[in-house]
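Title: Comparing notes on inverse folding

I've been comparing how different people in this forum approach sequence design from structure. To keep things fair, I'm posting one structure and asking everyone to reply with a full sequence. Here's the target:
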């Protein structure tokens, strides 16, 4: 699909307190919009109640429109943005991502098929100086390399949606504080649209570089994954991005914690030890793949990161299960955000 023939695109960037990363994000997409014949006709930055100078940074860019969000989370900001759009295609990029010059060009050809509702791309990395961002990045790339062009899961850091698909399902479910991108893609697919993935389309991401913050986010992800999979049955065994082995690790970590008191009893100490060994073994396949591809010995530490992460996700999942059961008892269908 040539640039001249491509349907017009509106870009929606949600953000809150994102001043540290917003300027390079907007510089990159403004450059894409300025390309001769670019289909990117409009750039909307939806500020979701920032307390820093994010709004002032957005106003520096002639090609960027500032929209005031409702401080209700990224889902609300994205909904506000795409509903303001008048173009047939809506591109979502996160405020901590820097789009490569050809990122949009690789997504557009997939929309030539009338039954494609959305197409997503992959990541580059903006902060490779420390180990944690590199581990996060290489894990994502390893997973993306195994994804096929037709998928059943899309993330919103770099995704192009057909506006008609968003209208059909009424956009993002704003009650989800995490996993709302997966939740939307599940509903879009259930509505009959195909989902696509193109590894060539990349946005470089500022991955989390603080271990405590990273684990806190993983706990939140665990919580909302419970709601996601309870409200969308059939994805528990894995999806295009994650496998059954990934999904069983948080519950297995909780089994390790529950059995840990048995370490004090000689006749029963084998049970928690066996559970821990199984959880350790679960880290081997992806760690080996990382090491083979990157040939960097330091990435063996991914096994430790993933092992610890399983416990934080498990704590979040446990809270999510309790919250879900409490909500069901009250007759509710989803915990209010």
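Reply #1:
Here's my take.
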């Amino acid at each position: 699909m040539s640039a001249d023939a491509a349907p017009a695109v509106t870009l929606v960037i949600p953000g809150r307190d994102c001043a540290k990363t917003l300027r390079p994000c907007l510089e990159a997409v403004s450059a894409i919009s300025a390309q001769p014949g670019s289909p990117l006709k409009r750039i909307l930055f939806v500020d979701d109640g920032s307390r820093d100078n994010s709004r002032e940074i957005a106003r520096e860019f002639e090609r960027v429109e500032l929209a005031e969000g409702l401080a209700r989370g990224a889902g609300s900001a994205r909904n506000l943005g795409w509903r303001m759009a008048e173009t047939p295609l809506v591109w979502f990029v996160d405020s901590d991502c820097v789009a490569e010059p050809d990122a949009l060009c690789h997504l557009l050809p997939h929309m030539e098929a009338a039954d494609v509702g959305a197409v997503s791309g992959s990541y580059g990395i903006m902060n490779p100086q420390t180990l944690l961002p590199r581990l996060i990045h290489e894990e994502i790339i390893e997973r993306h390399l195994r994804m096929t062009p037709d998928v059943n899961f899309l993330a919103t850091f770099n995704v192009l949606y057909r506006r008609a698909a968003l209208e059909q399902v009424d956009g993002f479910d704003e009650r989800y504080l995490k996993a709302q991108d997966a939740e939307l893609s599940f509903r879009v697919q259930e509505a009959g649209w195909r989902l696509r993935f193109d590894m060539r389309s990349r946005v470089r991401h500022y991955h989390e570089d603080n271990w405590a913050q990273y684990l806190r986010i993983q706990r939140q992800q665990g919580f909302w994954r419970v709601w996601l999979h309870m409200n969308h049955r059939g994805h528990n065994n894995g999806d295009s991005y994650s496998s059954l082995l990934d999904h069983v690790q948080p519950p297995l970590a909780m089994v390790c914690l529950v059995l840990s008191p048995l370490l004090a009893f000689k006749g029963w100490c084998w049970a928690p030890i066996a559970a821990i060994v199984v959880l350790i073994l679960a880290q081997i396949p992806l760690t080996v793949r990382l090491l083979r591809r990157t040939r960097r010995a330091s990435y063996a530490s991914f096994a430790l990161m993933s092992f610890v992460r399983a416990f934080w996700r498990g704590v979040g999942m446990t809270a999510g299960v309790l919250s879900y059961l409490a909500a069901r008892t009250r007759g509710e269908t989803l915990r209010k955000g």
